[in-house]
Amino acid sequence: MDLPTTLAEKIAALSDGPGCYIYKDAAGIEIYVGKAKNLRRRVASYFQARDGHPAKTLRLVQETVDLQVIATDSEVEALLLENVLIKELQPRFNIKLKDDKTYPLLAITREAFPRVFCTRDRDQPEVDFFGPFGSAKELYRAYHFLMRVFRFRVCDLDLREDDPGRRSFKPCLNFHIKRCSAPCTTRVSQADYGEDIRALRAFIGGRNKGTVVSSLRERMKRAAGELRFEDAARCRDQIQAIDRLKERGRLRDYDEPAAPTIDIHAGMERLQAHLGLAAPPRVIEGFDIAHLQGTHVVASLVQFVSGVPNKDAYRRFKIRGEAGDGDPGNDDFAAMR
Q1: Tell me: the pLDDT tens digits for 21-44?
Q2: Which of 92, 120, 196, 256 gets the most CB atoms within 10 Å of its CB?
Q3: Residues paired with 303 in a beta bridge
Q4: Distance (Å, rounded) from C-alpha 219 to C-alpha 192?
């Protein structure tokens, strides 16, 4: 079967960059939405070597008479835009993604300082869901990019603006590697953190990158004018991360190493499963024993609450032996007792 002239011309004119494509039938109805890191190669593959296609793809190709393309600057944006288009257009050849409840979602809680995480559980209260996404691996890659830009929290701490404990709380590793703005402390206000979450929601919409960048530029200028230079620097870093999508926007660029575990919530769930616990551990304490050639034995205690270091509970000990009459020697088990 020969391709309609208009469709063939559009395929030939496609770029080699990333974006989303929309197939339409003879009535002009959108019947399928897809994304690609190389639009020309991906779209052309549907209409070449048709004998190797499954039956569903053959039906799609036979019914497609027109094509619409939306180019993006990166694969990350294409992934987010594809999700939005499927929700808006409800194309019938994307029916599995629309109906299957096992696909992963991006979740944002409605707390004073919202958490952002990936999940397959749609039944959680007070949570806004974005998705579903066809690939968990691709979603997590996009999630790691979003974490770098918008620096949202992933911990389970109950945070409030008026909590006096925020003045002395120590931020976790995510803050130090610029994955979180540390709302557990007073480094970021509820208003500024809320601005970051609103920008995140807009960016997830797939079409609002320009609006998000403009808003960040305004926030940066306002913060600098008010001499809030740390806030201005954070906005600057966010703008630069979004701008770098043009050069570093492949999804695989945002693979994260297996350790350290940046997603604290997921790490607690894995620890719960590994230890066979009824619920994720709330408090974890670790001891380290040290000595000088078997004498002058000391110990240190570190504590984590919901996966976050609680440095107020850190302790140092001098080990005096079971009877209190001297060092226990080079015996860590005796020192622990």
Answers
A1: 999 999 999 999 999 999 999 999
A2: 196
A3: 285
A4: 9
